[in-house]
Design a protein that fits this description.
The complex is a heterodimer of chains A (248) and B (253). By secondary structure, chain A is of the alpha/beta class. In chain A, 34% of the residues lie in helices and 24% in strands. Chain A is built from eight helices and ten strands. Chain A has a six-stranded mixed beta sheet with strand order 6-7-8-3-9-10, with helices on both faces. In chain A, strands 2-1-4-5 form a four-stranded antiparallel beta sheet, covered by helices on one side. In chain A, α5 runs parallel beside α6. Chain B is an all-alpha fold. Chain B has two domains: 30 residues; 216 residues, MetI-like (MetI-like fold, Orthogonal Bundle). Classes of the chains: A alpha/beta (248), B mainly alpha (253). The interface between A and B is medium-sized, with 29 and 24 residues. Bound molecules: adenosine-5'-triphosphate (ATP) and magnesium ion (MG). The site of adenosine-5'-triphosphate has 13 residues of chain A, from β2 and α1. Chain A: One of its GO terms (molecular function) is ATP binding. Chain A: Keywords: ATP-binding, Nucleotide-binding, Transport.
Chain lengths: 248, 253
């Protein structure tokens, strides 16, 4: 499954949010989007999800235009957005349920892998923040669409939990390859997870830089301490600097 | 949960204290029974007269429950329709609120003129008092659906129908139940009022008879049973709420 976005424009009334946005996610590739707060990252996902239609430009999935078409992607929001009246098991099958028949066996297998087997029948208010995010991620995985869009899924977690979750995400993804579009505002998170990074400008957003991440897989947290990691971080930071400088 | 029953226990004790005070005051001041009976007199009458009262009680119970079920169903249906059709809502909702300013006492005789003394006008009265709290509470519940959950459902491509059945309705369940609880307590009152205005049986009839023959003790028996009945219906709905509303307690500490 590949996603191609060409010359995408959108404005909210007088406010241009995306301008000539171009990007590509190849089959089974992990792509991160790095951009300042308020630049239009969530808006980009709403365009891909079909909640908004672009003013100009094209969104294509496998070469077919999906402008304004809903239900073609898997999605994981910033807040876990679990349904409080559903058990963990009922929650993870929700996205699949919307599209047709949920597969409980597969759901149980993934929950077990995530260390959540004993919480299958618990309600979300009994889970910790990290556990909720794992449930939300499994729910997205189970929805079967092969493009997975994640909107800053770990930004609300503490540093310890975040690194653990990043490792866990990578290990799950190695086994269940999908194309991933991962939105973040953390340079390190983008570098640790992705094959390629798009750096966005501030609003109106366009792609300022495209960086290929050279680190081999499987990766683990030791990568965070290497010189190569540090150099790349510096390089990416150069691209972001201007936007920090003249920000109010 | 335990806290709840403890509070309940406390108010029961306080009620008991009030009854004892009442009993003592009546005895000390030697108030005549036809003016204000002591609790012991009321209890005695309740025990002796229960044989006669029983039929009236059953009639009111079935009338209240039937009216409550109809009123709540109509209320829920109306709230769903108004919620799904915002244009209709704009026109009807203000009228609905206005309709609540018509006093039941005025409406009831009219209904009897139009529909006679049968079951129908009584059920209409009870439904009218019951449906409004259900409509208001349910609509508030639907409207207060968490925006991030709504956004999530749209992002994964849920249809409007799925949005309603999988998100809005279950999300509104606690609100709907608070509406049902208010309706339950109103329903008994509605039933008694409708019986006042013309019926062969029922607590309302019993009350009118007691009043006209200055049997104040019987009036109090009726009041006592009306309260018990309301509390009973309230309890049944609370129980249903406990069973149906899941996972809503606040985050674990
Ligand atoms: N529906 C809307 N109507 C009007 N303006 C909007 C709407 N949605 C977003 N915006 C504006 O568009 C801009 C981009 O918003 P967006 O949520 O896409 O940013 P973001 O990059 O996701 O930010 P963050 O990192 O804080 O999540 C913001 O200035 C926001 O105020
Ligand atoms: Mg955002």
């Amino acid at each position: 499954m590949s996603l191609t976005i060409t010359e995408l424009d959108i404005a909210f009334g007088q406010l241009p949010v995306l301008e000539k946005m171009n990007l590509q996610v190849n089959n089974d590739e992990f792509v991160a989007i790095l951009g300042p707060s308020g630049s239009g990252k969530s808006t980009l996902l709403q365009l891909i999800g079909g909640l908004l239609t672009p003013d100009n430009g094209m969104i294509q999935l496998n070469g077919e235009s999906i402008n304004g078409k809903k239900g073609l992607i898997s999605y994981m929001p910033q807040h876990p957005s679990l349904f409080p009246w559903r058990t963990v098991l009922e929650n993870v099958v929700l996205a699949a349920e919307i599209k047709g028949k949920p597969e409980y066996e597969e759901a149980k297998r993934l929950l077990e892998k995530a260390g959540l087997a004993e919480f299958e029948n618990s309600y979300p208010n009994e889970l910790s923040g990290g556990m909720k995010q794992r449930v939300a991620f499994i729910r997205a995985l189970l929805s079967k669409q092969s493009l997975l869009c994640l909107d800053e899924p770990f930004s609300a977690l503490d540093e310890f939990t975040r690194i653990k979750m990043q490792n866990w995400l990578l290990s799950i993804w190695e086994e269940n390859r999908k194309s991933i579009l991962f939105i973040t505002h953390s340079i390190e998170e983008a570098m640790f997870l992705a094959d390629r990074i798009y750096v966005l400008s501030k609003r109106p957003a366009h792609v300022k830089a495209e960086i290929t991440v050279p680190f081999s897989r499987p990766r683990n947290e030791r990568l965070l301490e290497t010189n190569e990691f540090f150099h790349l971080k510096k390089q990416i930071f150069q691209h972001m600097k201007e936007d920090i400088a003249d920000d109010d | 949960m335990r806290k709840m029953s403890m509070h309940g226990g406390r108010s029961l004790f306080f009620l008991l204290f009030l009854f004892i005070l009442w009993e003592l005051l009546i005895r000390l001041t030697e108030t005549p029974k036809w003016l204000l009976p002591a609790p012991s007199d009321v209890l005695k009458e309740a025990a002796i007269g229960f044989g006669d009262f029983y039929g009236h009680l059953l009639s009111t119970i079935s009338l209240s429950i039937l009216g409550l079920v109809i009123g709540c169903s109509v209320g829920l249906l109306i709230s769903i329709i108004l919620h799904r059709l915002p244009k209709v809502n704009e026109v009807l909702y203000p009228l609905l609120i206005l309709s609540q300013n018509i006093p039941t006492i005025v409406l009831a005789p009219l209904l009897i003129i139009w529909f006679g003394f049968g079951l129908l006008p009584k059920l209409i009265i009870i439904s009218l008092v019951c449906f409004f709290p259900v409509v208001v509470a349910s609509m508030d519940g639907f409207r207060q659906t968490a925006p991030e959950l709504r956004h999530y459902m749209k992002m994964i491509g849920a249809t409007n129908k799925q949005l309603f059945w999988k998100l809005e309705l279950p999300h509104a369940l606690p609100s709907i139940f608070s509406g049902l609880k208010i309706a339950a307590t109103y329903s008994v009152m509605g039933a008694v009022i409708s019986e006042w205005l013309g019926a062969k049986k029922g607590i309302g009839v019993y009350m009118t008879l007691a009043q006209s023959s200055f049997r104040i003790d019987r009036v109090f028996v009726a009041i006592g049973f009306i309260m018990l009945l309301s509390v009973g219906l309230f309890g049944v709905i609370r129980l249903a709420e406990k069973i149906m509303v899941k996972g809503r307690s606040e985050e674990k500490k």
